[in-house]
Design goal:
Elements: H1 3-20, H2 24-59, H3 64-83, H4 88-91, H5 103-113, H6 122-134, H7 139-169, H8 175-190, H9 193-211, H10 215-244, H11 265-280, H12 282-304, H13 311-329, H14 341-344, H15 350-365, H16 367-372, H17 374-378, H18 384-403, H19 405-408, H20 428-451, H21 454-470, H22 472-485, H23 487-496
Helix pairs in contact: 1-5, 2-6, 3-7, 6-7, 7-10, 11-12, 11-15, 12-13, 13-18, 13-20, 15-18, 15-22, 18-20, 18-21, 20-21
Length: about 500
């Protein structure tokens, strides 16, 4: 069997694996909303590409789009964290087969190159290139421009795979993409207008105009692609063998007893479990550190920078800080417990106490973003009323929505595996609910603010949030009762996905 035949065989196996997955039927409903969102974004990008193409044709500067490519590549890079996983989780079953050592990883890396998601940006590139071509650009030059823009996206996909693999090993690797994209975008934000204009004129006259669509550009990105592909090929295979072999450095650590929680009985024991899971579980710990870094960055950017000054941006980022931990963890509520769900069924209302402990834990965590967002309050960008409104919105209606996933989640989430672990989103409903919790409260605030005032909007959110927060025992018991009604169906799903 040659590599071409192996490529199509593994591609077929991947599709069959997805169809056999217990959540395949549920995903079909979620895909509809995913396609709807993608369609809306496509329309926006078509309009943007048309607008930029009109400017480029009018000014006679075909390289206009390249000025915005740093932002496009950054958006592409960030979106892949929500929609694309490293191929290593797919390779593990083939490591024990007589296939050559690197054949499987080669096929899956090539499959990433030809992934249809890489073509999404064509909805922007095609209108741009077509209008520039109508403005006088030759046919071969237009085709070359289109190919080069797509090559940039493909290289960005390989860069994403490299960063994602390294970040899974250590959170310190986040410094690499931050430094890279920061160096590209910083001149747009930090430099004074006069200095920025001179820098952009120099880049445009001496780099973009003579070399933007020359053979040198093709050669540069082709070399980058080969380099990233080779690094991914060796590095990811090294890490997957390390993870499968469970090769890791261990050292004796002091084990905290958290004896102060003993007074809360069984709920206290589950609180200890949540705390220790955050401290020891690689996946949960990494998401927790990511949240702290993101919240701190946006808080300082709003407090001391000139960006994110619009009403929508400020409201969204304030809400984002309080919703982040719930959105990335509570959408998968009960998935880690799927590894030992049978033991939780032994005692009556065991799971109710577990869910209650989770609720208390994630409410307590919100004190952290509350403190991290004090700098914008001090500088006058945020108000205390605004912070309280979004904090109680998180503890109330948002957590109420997120905990509903306890009824429907039936995929076991690995406790510590990250590279060969399952997809971040076990079903599309998790992604949809996560998006709703992040945007719906902001939309409500802006609508009420348009009719009345921001103070009225925040007071309404506080009242609604407190109502849901104080009624937590009632809606949590309702979730528990519905979960028990589906317990056999959920148990079957947890067992099938271990």
């Amino acid at each position: 069997m040659n590599k071409i035949q192996l490529f199509f065989l593994l591609r077929k196996h991947t599709k069959l694996s997805q169809k056999r997955h217990p959540m395949f039927e549920a995903n079909q409903y979620g895909k509809f909303f995913g396609y709807l969102f993608a369609s809306i974004m496509a329309v926006e990008f078509i309009a943007l590409g048309t607008f930029l193409g009109w400017i480029a044709a009018k000014e006679g500067e075909q390289e206009v789009l390249l000025y915005g490519m740093p932002f496009i590549l950054l958006l592409d890079f960030a979106s892949r964290f929500m929609t694309q996983q490293t191929p290593l989780m797919l390779v593990k079953p083939y490591l024990l087969t007589p296939i050559k050592k690197y054949s499987a990883i080669d096929c899956f890396l090539i499959n990433q190159v030809f992934d249809l998601g890489n073509l999404f940006w064509m909805v922007m590139f095609l209108p741009y290139v077509f209008i520039v071509w109508c403005g006088g650009l030759s046919t071969w030059a237009a085709l070359g421009m289109l190919f080069l823009l797509h090559l940039m996206v493909v290289v960005n996909s390989q860069w994403y795979l490299l960063v994602r693999t390294l970040v899974n090993q250590s959170m310190w690797w986040w410094a690499l993409p931050i430094a890279f994209y920061g160096a590209m975008i910083a001149p747009f934000i930090l430099l004074p207008d006069g200095v920025a204009d001179k820098v952009f004129d120099f880049i445009g006259n001496n780099i973009l105009e003579p070399f933007a669509f020359s053979w040198w550009s093709f050669a540069l990105f082709a070399i980058l692609f080969v380099i990233f592909f080779i690094i991914n090929r060796s590095l990811q295979m090294r890490f997957i063998y390390s993870e499968i072999s469970k090769v890791e450095k261990t050292k004796m650590k002091h084990v905290s007893e958290f004896s102060a929680l003993n007074r809360f009985g069984q709920i206290g024991e589950y609180l200890k479990l949540e705390i220790k899971s955050t401290m020891r579980n690689k996946a949960i710990r990494s998401r927790f550190i990511q949240g702290i870094c993101f919240i701190t960055f946006f808080s300082l950017a709003i407090a001391f920078g000139n960006i994110y000054q619009g009403d929508f941006a400020r409201n969204f980022l304030c809400l984002y800080a309080f919703v982040f931990f719930g959105a990335v963890n509570l959408t998968k509520v009960m998935c880690p417990e799927g590894n030992y769900i049978d033991l939780l069924m032994v005692h009556e209302e065991n799971i109710l106490k577990l869910l209650t402990a989770k609720y208390y834990y994630y409410c307590a965590i919100l004190l952290l973003p509350l403190l991290l967002q004090l700098p914008p309050v001090i500088t006058g960008q945020f108000s205390i009323l605004m912070l309280l409104a979004y904090m109680f919105t998180a503890t109330g209606p948002i957590y109420c929505m997120l905990f509903q996933m306890a009824v429907y989640n039936k995929d076991t989430l690995p406790l510590n595996d990250k590279i060969t672990g399952k997809n971040q989103m076990e079903n599309k409903w998790q992604a949809i609910l996560s998006m709703v919790t992040m945007f719906a409260p902001v939309v409500v605030v802006l609508l009420i603010e348009a009719l009345f005032s921001a103070t009225t909007a925040y007071l309404i959110l506080i009242v609604i949030g407190l109502a849901f927060t104080f009624s937590e025992p009632y809606w949590m018991r309702n979730i528990y009762q519905r979960m028990m009604t589906r317990r056999y169906e959920n148990l079957e799903g947890f067992h099938a996905t271990r």
